[in-house]
Predict the 3D structure of the following.
Amino acid sequence: MTLRSWLFVPGDSERKLGKADASGADVLILDLEDSVAAKAKPAARALVAGFLDAHSRPRPSQLWVRINPLDSGLALEDLIAIVPGRPDGVMIPKAGGPADVERLSHYLDALEAQHGVKAGAIRIVPVATETPAAPFQLGDYAKATLPRLAGLTWGAEDLATALGASTNLDETGRWALTFRMVRSLTLLGARAARVQAIDTLYVDFRDEEGLRTSCQAARAEGFTGRLAIHPAQVAVINAAFRPSADEIDFARQVVAAFDAHPSAGTVSLDGRMLDIPHLKQARQVLAAAGSSA
Ligand code: COA
Ligand code: MG
């Protein structure tokens, strides 16, 4: 299933948690990390655990938790608090590479067994570009055996801080070169690992038109979803990452054309040559459409 919109909800805010259900997001990311001040971490853990408990399946949105970084000294307490509530997944901020996904996976193996959660049920998405070294490992996710890995996403704010950069934008307002580069590597790394490529958040949450244009461009490049910080961004993201009626119609025609010639590697449709990459692309469109039916 393609998960298009991933809405962060600060884990210490009862008010925002209370609004989250109505957002229509495919995923709520209940945040224990950067949107929660150090002093509020224990209270946020309790609130998030309570939220998970109060939302047994089927859930309107998948419920994920962004824990604190694995080397922060907080991550184990986060996991101990949330696994009993059976989150659908865990996001690791400032992930170093596949070894961090493996480490988290081992922790989850133990906690799932302890709490009677189906083994391997809790999925993982690392934020894979938030330290200067992490982008060098983006190609390695595909080489590792990571059955829990559901996607890769990237972040520009923490990376800028880690680099000592005063901005992550260039003079035209686009991502500066280093950030464009790690964004592309995230896309390549995710697709190589056959998981979702999730674009980073659009900071200006009042600029609906800018978000729409930016999401359409991201989808055209191969991203399948996007992080969100405000409920108003969800509908725009869901629509932009949903294939249009024309695309779905064309994809159906492509699949039908190949179905009619099961042993052919290339067929023609309305005078246009189609080969196997077109068929694969058509199937991806139909898979993405299926999630938004
Ligand atoms: N999840 C759930 N509800 C949210 C929300 C979110 N991420 N962001 C805003 N809301 C709610 C607000 O509580 C408000 O409802 P209320 O008036 O009943 O309180 C309503 O949506 C409209 O919000 P608005 O007034 O437009 O924004 P704001 O000034 O309250 O909040 C932010 C702006 C950026 C602080 C807020 O959107 C936010 O906290 N975003 C998430 C930040 C985050 O998690 N960052 C970490 C990842 S980088
Ligand atoms: Mg951060």
About this structure: DSSP finds ten helices and ten strands in the chain. Strands lie at 5-10, 27-31, 62-66, 89-92, 123-126, 151-153, 196-199, 225-228, 266-269, 272-275.
